[in-house]
Amino acid sequence: MTCRKCGGLMYKEVIYTQQGSLLVFRCIHCGEIIDPLIVTNRR
Q: Is residue 2 part of a domain?
């Protein structure tokens, strides 16, 4: 997967919060984070 912001490589990461865990994609170049809610809101 490539980053829409810079074209860099995206990798899967798990973020742990008080409400539980969340699977997100993070760009190795610019640090852009994409999760399911962000994808839904961009549509």
A: no
